[in-house]
Amino acid sequence: MTTPTPTAGPAAALGAALTAEYAAIWAYGPIGVRLTGAARKAARDAEAAHRRRRDDLVLHLSTAGGAVPADRAGYALPFPVTDAANALRLAVEVEERTGAFWRAAVAATTGTDRERALAALVDCAVRATRWRRTAGITPLTVPFPGRPA
Amino acid sequence: MIRAGALLALGSALAPLTGCDPFDRDGEPAPGPDPLAPLVDEALALAAAYREAAAAHPTLAERLTPIAEAHATHAAELARVARMTLPSATATGAPAEPTSDPDAALATLREREKTAREAATRACAEAPADRAALLASVTAARAAHLEALR
């Protein structure tokens, strides 16, 4: 998982957002297995939401005739997931990092592409807030979701 | 957009030459109203509303104070981008009616936050690229505030 480059054109920015979605879907695997009950269900729902964004983007990019970045067999996690506490911390981080790519895509696009990117950033920020609540992290929100620290 | 912007720029460049700038800005070109100005005002008003609710309902303070600070931070950043000067003291209009119970206070804040999220969404859709990312973060923050108020 990396951070977005700020000067990409629309197709490159959406392609970068797609790779972020691939990584998010992958990360929810190890996250989900460390969680139980409502938190595990929330992880499944979050993963499903990222899959919908991925499918939407693949369709959109291929219809536009541009390059569609390929998924990889695995992604480097920022830290190992060994228990529920760091699984929740990773879930927060996955949403923050994925949101950063969508924020970059907002700046690189206009019209319906921008609406789509903004909706995705909003979803990431709301899920990050829910994960912080589950993890007992305060404050629940950050002032500028998606902005590189 | 480009044409309108160019005309505005021309207009403000000419203003000092005509010598009829009623506010005498010491030769500074008179700026046209920035489209971010209403968002700055809204963010300041929201920050004040959250602070007032936190003061009236101490049990909510832990939740509301970070949101008040986020709105104040948004106002400062939006003003910086728009090259506006923030009012030194937050202009609170008539003091808000003290709401008797915390649930009612939260419901009021939720409504205001929803309206503000929609305003930021519209502003983001219409913004030039160099402002769109900031407005996207402001929109996402407001959506996250709504989640935090649940």
Walk me through this protein's architecture.
The complex is a heterodimer of chains A (149) and B (150). The longest helix of chain A is centred in the middle third of the chain and has 27 residues, at 37-63. Chain A is 68% helix and 0% strand. With 149 residues, chain A is an all-alpha fold. Chain A has one domain (10-135): Ferritin, core subunit, four-helix bundle (Ferritin), CATH 1.20.1260. Chain A is globular and about 40 Å long. With 150 residues, chain B is mainly alpha-helical. Chain B has 2 domains: 1-32; 36-148, Ferritin, CATH 1.20.1260. Chain B is built from 5 helices and no strands. Chain B has helices at 2-18, 37-56, 61-81, 102-126, 129-148. Residues 1-25 of chain B have low confidence and may be disordered. Chain A binds chain B through residues 99, 102-104, 106-108, 114-115, 117-118, 121-122, 124-126, 128-130, 133, 138-147, and chain B through 62-63, 66-67, 69-70, 73-74, 77, 121, 124-125, 129-130, 132-134, 136-141, 143-145, 147-148.
The N- to C-terminal Cα distance of chain A equals 15 Å
How many DSSP helices of chain B? Answer: 5
Strand content of chain A: under 5%
The CATH class of the largest domain in chain B is identified as Mainly Alpha
**Rg of Cα set of chain B:** 18 Å
- What name is given to the CATH topology of chain A? Ferritin
Secondary structure tally: strands of chain B: 0
Give the integer mean of the pLDDT values of chain A.
Answer: 95
Q: Say which CATH homologous superfamily of chain A is assigned.
A: Ferritin, core subunit, four-helix bundle
What is the count of DSSP helices of chain A, taking H or I runs of 4+ residues?
A: 4
CATH architecture call of chain A? Up-down Bundle
Query: What's the end-to-end separation of chain B, in Å?
Result: 39 Å
- The percent of residues in helical segments of chain A reads 55-70%
Kindly give the count of domains of chain B.
2
Radius of gyration of chain A: 15 Å
Unreliable segments of 5+ consecutive residues of chain A? none
